Backbone:
């Protein structure tokens, strides 16, 4: 069975600073995909970034980057130059075969002006 | 183009009543997912439709829950004899599924409150 764990229920960061959200997962699969989704107060889930497990290079999307440690089954999200609009719930997700997605319980991030 | 839409946005019902939640996926998207998001919890997978294949119902929590997808487009999630523990936000997502990395596009959800 696949599980995704986010151990930080809440975090805060000063505007313009950098914050890292943690995510670990457990799987016996070798080929899989990892995602970070953002859910602002509007409830609209938006994909932030994704990573293929077979790629060693960490994915980067503008201010968002990941630190993917396959052996440790860790997939953290780094947000640089935090902005007020980054305030949201962030969910880590895993997908292997079968196209089913497994989500963590989320981290509530607040960017403080 | 239009995104995934869900209706109603909010639903309040009495315990024991049946409810229907609707999802309109993005046109051309062959895959459709339903999730349940309870307060303080992550997204719980409920059911997955892919084209004309038999749906993956492995996440449905009880036989009070069912879902249909008509014509490969609109989907309806039905909860019979609602219970207070069914109170949650129900999210729908669709994927084009032209490639394995096709992302899910989520609707805004339906907040269900069972009194």
Residues:
């Amino acid at each position: 069975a696949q599980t995704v764990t986010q151990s930080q229920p809440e975090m805060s960061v000063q505007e313009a600073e950098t914050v890292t959200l943690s995510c670990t997962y457990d799987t016996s699969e070798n080929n899989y995909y990892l995602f970070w989704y953002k859910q602002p107060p509007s409830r609209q889930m938006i994909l932030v970034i994704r990573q293929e497990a077979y790629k060693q290079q960490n994915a980067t999307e503008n201010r968002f980057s990941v630190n993917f440690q396959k052996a440790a089954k860790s997939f953290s999200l780094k947000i640089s130059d935090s902005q007020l609009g980054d305030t949201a719930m962030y969910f880590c997700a895993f997908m292997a075969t079968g196209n089913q997605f497994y989500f963590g319980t989320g981290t509530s991030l607040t960017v403080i002006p | 183009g239009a995104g995934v839409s869900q209706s109603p946005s909010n639903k309040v019902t009495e315990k024991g009543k049946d409810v229907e939640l609707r999802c309109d996926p993005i046109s051309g998207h062959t895959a459709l997912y339903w999730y349940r998001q309870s307060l303080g919890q992550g997204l719980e997978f409920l059911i997955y439709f892919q084209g004309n294949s038999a749906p993956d119902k492995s996440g449905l929590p009880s036989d009070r829950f069912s879902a249909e997808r008509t014509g490969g487009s609109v989907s309806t999630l039905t909860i019979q004899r609602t219970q207070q523990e069914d109170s949650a936000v129900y999210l729908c997502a669709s994927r084009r599924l032209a490639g394995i990395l096709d992302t899910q596009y989520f609707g805004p959800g339906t907040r269900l409150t069972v009194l």
Q: What stands out?
A: The CA atoms of residues 22 and 76 of chain B lie 5 Å apart. The interface with chain A takes residues 31, 33, 35, 40-45, 48, 50, 56, 58, 89, 91, 93, 95, 97, 100-101, 103-104, 106-109 of chain B (CB under 8 Å).
